[in-house]
Amino acid sequence: MAKKLRSANITQGVERAPNRSMYYALGYTEEDFSKPMIGIANGQSTITPCNSGLQPLADAAAAAIKEAGGNPQMFGTPTISDGMAMGTEGMKYSLVSREVIADCVETCVQGQWMDGVLVIGGCDKNMPGGMMGMLRANVPSIYVYGGTILPGHYDGKDLNIVSVFEAVGEHAAGRMSAEDLRNIEMNAIPCSGSCGGMYTANTMSSAFEVMGMSLPYSSTMANVHQEKLDSAAESGRVLLKAVEMDLKPRDIVNRRSIENAVAVVMATGGSTNAVLHILAIAHAAEVEWSIDDFERVRRKVPVICNLKPSGEFLAVDFHKAGGVPQVMKILLNAGLLHGDCITITGQTIAEVLADVPDAPPADQNIIFPISQALYPEGHLAILRGNLAELGAVAKITGLKNPAITGPARVFDDEPSAMDAILAGRIKAGDVMVLRYLGPKGGPGMPEMLAPTSALVGEGLGDSVGLITDGRFSGGTWGMVVGHVAPEAAVGGTIALVEEGDSITIDAHRQLLQLNLPDEVIARRRAAWTPPKPRYLRGVQAKFAFNCSDASTGAVLDRFDTPA
After folding, report:
1. Is the CB of residue 345 less than 8 Å from the CB of residue 307?
2. What is the DSSP string of 39-95?
3. Alpha-carbon distance 415 to 393, whole Å?
4. β-sheet bridge partners, residue 466
5. Mind listing the pLDDT tens digit for each residue in 24-52?
6. Which is nearest to 114 in space by CA: 86, 85, 73?
7. CATH topology of domain 381-552
8. For 223, which of 51, 193, 395, 546 could close a Cys bridge (C-beta 3.0–4.6 Å)?
9. What residues have CB less than 8 Å from 157, skipping those under 6 apart?
10. How many angstroms separate the CA atoms of 119 and 7, rounded?
11. Which of 279, 110, 137, 273 is CA-nearest to residue 203?
């Protein structure tokens, strides 16, 4: 290595002999102290299928790093399974885990003075958490996505995790037998890998590939396939070259590469969580990026992929059709991608895409040319109004009419909302309000997949509105608006809504409105009192006290500007 290694600060020189003695205990030889120390942040866990297949990838990367002349040093990061925690108090730890993972990566890389880091993750918060840690440490880095899951099967149909949540609603509505529900539950998740649609994990892995922080095609490979192992090994070799070049994350992740990522999120119909996480990633990279930038990109990038949850196909199908590089090439040719952005390979985006076909394969219905776009504009709209002065996020594709005005059905927690849906008390034309579920109020901004999927299962996905200061799963679709800011816990207008009030959700006008006179809202605000904190100790209390609002990414270290 031509450049001076950071790890030399703790392993080289006579005065570092005590430090080196500990490395000898790990099997180092004298020659190893002149090699770059490469961290492997490994999210392996038997908690969830998303992460249960990561160890082989970590081992493949470690072997490749060693063979390429580096010293791999593995450390762990935690994970919370959103799918398993959904609908429970545990879901409030999901977004918190993003910050814990970022802290783990930053702390280990900086504390051990590593020369580079390869992060391996699977479940939703592994992705942004790992990227935020990489950007904070800012040593040569690469992200290895654990890979998507294969579809499950029952009764001749492909299944995924959302199939189960929707089946609960169908069973409650009397349209599915208990036996079919149980068989769907037992067969939806057949192996290791992350949830199979263009849900949050696959959305963020795709965004990382577009940003240039992961290898081409790696974001849509299946965990159980050999090509994923091969890609993990190649990632290790590429990282060693990045260390040689001193190519760091903040050389790659900038305003233009983030815009590229958002363009592909829009084109593929990705998760609403991408808004929250990309805001946080931009903050970690010290890049200026706001929710208004999402709206700017949305208006010029069409949806060209037919992917779940609002479409038909899964990530494994997307991969076979050409995956993220094919979408990128279509956008690049249309002038909707910055081709001069650098990637972790040292090549530009345009160079990476040089051999990718200009048009998608003709024998598939997953990726379309822009002339056959499914929707002329992107699907993640930023809504504002007196219910969301700082903004809210709506997924507006797949709906017959993305506008509704109806009576508010108000719930201060998720279980009571779920009970009302399953008991048949929510009717077409209602607008459900789920509040005190924001970053501070939850705390931790839990996802509302269970209520939204139950509405779909009940046949109300197109006819019932739902707004929340919480989040939605990447598997959510319907007349739903999340990330409402200011949130209820800090006195946002959503806290002042009363049962039966008229609310308008209008994606055409990008409006989220409580239809009351200003003076009525002012009287209610004067009478409102903040709730007592739900937690006074531990990570939940720390998160609630420190987090910024959803419109700035719900980050914990936004100390340079007001929360």
Report:
1. no
2. EEEE---SS-TTTTT-HHHHHHHHHHHHHTT-EEEEEE-----HHHHTTSGGGGGHH
3. 22
4. 432, 480
5. 998 889 889 899 999 999 999 999 999 99
6. 73
7. Glucose Oxidase; domain 1 (3.50.30)
8. 193
9. none
10. 18
11. 273
Mean per-residue pLDDT for 12-30? 83
Structure tokens at 562: 């007001």
pLDDT in tens, 394-412: 988 766 778 999 999 999 9
Average pLDDT of span 236-246 = 98
More reliable by pLDDT, 559 or 514:
514
Contact 51, 134 (CB under 8 A): no
> Are the CB atoms for 129 and 416 separated by under 8 Å?
no
Catalytic residues: 473
H or E element that contains 117: strand 116-121
Strand bridging mode 465-468 / 37-42: unpaired
Partners of 3 in beta bridges: none
Cβ within 8 Å of residue 537, ≥6 positions away = none
pTM (2 d.p.): 0.96
Residue ranges per structural domain of the chain: 8-26+37-150+191-352, 381-552
Q: What is the DSSP letter of 263?
A: H
pLDDT, tens digit (0-9, with 9 covering 90-100), for 458-489: 889 889 999 999 999 877 777 899 999 999 99
The C-alpha angle 482, 289, 81, rounded to 5 degrees, equals 45
Cβ atoms of 475 and 165 within 8 Å: the answer is yes
Phi, psi at residue 437, to the nearest 5°? -125, 15
Question: Under a CB-based contact definition with an 8 Å cutoff, are residues 475 and 309 in contact?
Answer: yes
Question: Which of 75-89, 146-160, 275-289, 398-412 has the highest average model confidence (pLDDT)?
Answer: 275-289
Q: Note the pLDDT of residue 1.
A: 43
Structure tokens at 350: 């345009």
DSSP-based three-state secondary structure for 154:
strand
In the numeric block, the tokens 């795709």 are attached to 206
Query: Could you report the per-residue pLDDT of 258-267, keeping only the tens digit for each?
Result: 999 999 999 9
Please give the Cα distance from 6 to 109 (Å, whole number). Answer: 10
Q: Per the structure block, which two tokens stand in for 106?
A: 């930053």
